[in-house]
Amino acid sequence: MPESSYPDRSHLPASPGVYIFRDGEGRVLYVGKAKNIRSRVASYFTRSGDGRPKIAELRERVRQIDFIAAGSETEALVLEANLIKRHRPRFNASLRDDKSYPYIVVTTGDEYPRVFATRGPHDLRHRYFGPFPSAGSVHATLDVLNKTFRFRKCRGPEPGRKSGIPCLNYHIGRSAAPCIGAVSKEEYDGIISDVIAFLEGRVDGLIREREEKMRRAASEMDFERAARLRDEAAALRHVRDRQRATIASEDSFDAVGAYAEGEEACVQIFAVREGQIVGRDSFLLDNYGEQDAESVALSFIPQYYESAAVPREILVSSPDEEALPPIAEHLSRLRGTRVEVRRPQRGDKRRVLELALRNARMGLEHERAMNEARRGRLSSTLDRLREELALPRLPMRIECYDISNTMGTNSVASMVVFHGGRPAKDRYRRFRIKTVEGADDPASMAEVVRRRLERLLTGDEKFSPAPDLILLDGGKGQLSAVAAVLEELGSGGRLPDIPVRALAKREEEVFEPGRPGPVVLAPGSAELHLLQRVRDEAHRFANAYHRRLRGKAMTASVLDELPGVGPVRKRRILEHFGSPQAFLEASLEELEAVPGLPGRVAREIYARLHR
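Given the sequence above, the corresponding structure tokens read:
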């Protein structure tokens, strides 16, 4: 793949997060993490790649690059693991089962709970946090936690040793020693509550408390204690970052974040399942009313969940408490059980919502950057097309015409419109050929263009403004016929200067009136690709209309020729199948099932259709 064909990377942020490579069909090829997403992704598209042997194959297959911004590199690490586990990309190593990954467990089912690492099955009496990306990260987390929170480290549901003598951990300040009564049950429960609060993400207060004590100790000249409190606060921040890409509980919910600016908005939905961020959906919305982001999100939610699975809980940022109960009631009906829609104030759920909000803002910025890049590319393409085809102005509005018929019957034409290089489907028109008998494509093309331009001359708004370029699906015959119509209708200055060109399929050559040889655009060039897209769309639109008319004609012909099928039975047959195409493809059993249609008549119809 030439370098110019690589996916656009200008939208990628220079921040920590996860990048996702997709192929042409949207399948996830690779998920990676990075401290700087833009820099890391750029390394894949250098000549040497990043050194991995499969990088060349990956680089050739990638067609789209998505990203999820994260708060830290550690958060990106665990988020990467969650996404790889969910999508199992071809270019990532496959993850093993959940039980193979380490968790931190707090044995809340015990009188004096312990805190330790586990890979085993979960006990419903206890609390589990994770999974963590490696055993080393779990043990490092436990070590730092134990320096700050003096939970017991002895084994078994009961604290202490058979000798009754406290262990070394008590003497070095790593255990509160409930085994010898050095701490009351209430005080020990407070220690465990702090551990759970921290692992659930409610640690800002703990950090602030230590920072406050540190400043007080420093003002009292107790620098040794101040240094210890400083290290504790730093350790708490460090371990908090390790846990950020997973949710401390095993809750399942969706966090809906929206960002609006002007007439555009972006909504991102982060899906959390069993405590893991497992996916993200992004939607770009028109926001002509310029509503605020919270209103956009609330109006979007009911539409989205009409076709999506509804979780037990949905998080939003809207402060309008009165607007949430009706939405929750509607979603509860869709789910069949109670659904809660609320605005989280703190903790992991608040953090995931803020992540969705941040990514919604970046998603809109990304789309605007992409649109700007597309506009720039399209502008350059249109400018080159103007030069290559010697057009009098930039071809902002291109109209293309095509004829479709079967042996001269049911002859129709299509008119498709591309504005600024993009299809303007509300401007498409179709025609039934009225004045031409048989398969005469040049005459049919001339009739259609004449009818279109006459509507322009009468001021019909459905056929205005005038095109900057008329493109014909055909060769010199069609071009000559249409050029004559333009010359006739344009006499006396009634029409603006409308250039016409024909694109012949066989060699993809462009013909121009009065020029004996064709204009040959560079194969694979953006300007030729644009003309081909316009031509192919006109061909598709014409064929679709022709098939519909042909199906109706065949249906009417078959039914009208059969004895025993009058207007009533004909209407019943068409109402039963819903469309001519469904009738023509019906089996004998399906025909016999038509209400009021005798079996003999059904068999005759089937024989006529399949003779």
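The chain has 18 helices and 18 strands. Try to locate this feature in the token string yourself.
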